[in-house]
Structure formats: structure tokens, C-alpha cells
Amino acid sequence: MWIQPHLAERVGGRTLHGFKHRRVVSPAVDQALKTMLTGVVDEHGATGNEAQIAGYTVAGKTGTAQIPGPHGYTTGKYVASFVGMVPVKTPRLLVLVSVEEPQSQIYGGVVAAPAFAQIASFDLQYMSVPPDAPVH
Is residue 134 very low, low, confident or very high in pLDDT (cuts 50, 70, 90)? Predict the structure, then answer.
């Protein structure tokens, strides 16, 4: 679902309403995409394993990109990223972690996914979002 971007959800304790929203993909495509992105995190040996959060289903995508320069790609310079949502069935958080020019490793699953897990874990507790999956 697309929800009209906004900066505030509440003003002076009063919840704001009337944000426009609309479906951008069919429910079947939504479910298929969530299943694929959950596999990026949960499947054995998948690139996003480091984004797992005990007690929660996580879906996401890792990214590793070489940085372009004025005459093609710059040797040895990368951006590592991970974007994920949690919990998958009824997402409450979407977090993007992007690390420009990581030092020891270059892969999003190694560099950015663990940061996602730390950020999202803190936020889930702060927002009192109940767990939705058994702890492994």
C-alpha cells in the first residue's frame, strides 16, 4: 500500500487522519514478494541471515554496488546496503541501512544487515510490537 508521505502522525496528542492511500500491487504479488524477501533472511545460507531478529519474521534485500566515478566504476569503492521490513505479515517498520565505502567487508549481508537487526530490534521494543514468530 502507498500511503501519502507525511511528517507528523500526531500533533498535541491528537492523531491526524485523512492521509491518502492506495494499493500499488495486487494481494497475490504482495504475498509472493513477501515470501521471496523472507527467504533472503530465513533460508539457510541466504545473503541476509544477519538481519534475523529473534521472535520476529523479517523480509529484506541485501545490496552491494560498486561506486561509479567520472570514467566508469571506481576500483575498490562500494556501497553495502540492506533494506528490510518487520514483522512480515503486518509490517510496522521499514529500515534501510546504507554504508558507503565499508572498510573490512563490502557485502550488504555482512555490513548492513547486522545494523538493520540492531536498529529494528530496538525500535520494535520501543514501539511495543509483539513477536510474531517462534524463537529459533
Answer: confident
Domain ranges of the chain: 27-126
User: What is the topology classification, in CATH, of domain 27-126?
Assistant: Beta-lactamase (3.40.710)
pTM: 0.85
Question: Quick check: 9 and 17 in contact, CB under 8 A?
Answer: no
DSSP for 47-109, written as a single string? TTGGG-BTTB--EEEEEEEEEEETTEEEEEEEEEEEEEEESSSS--EEEEEEEES-SS---HH
Three-class DSSP category at 122: helix
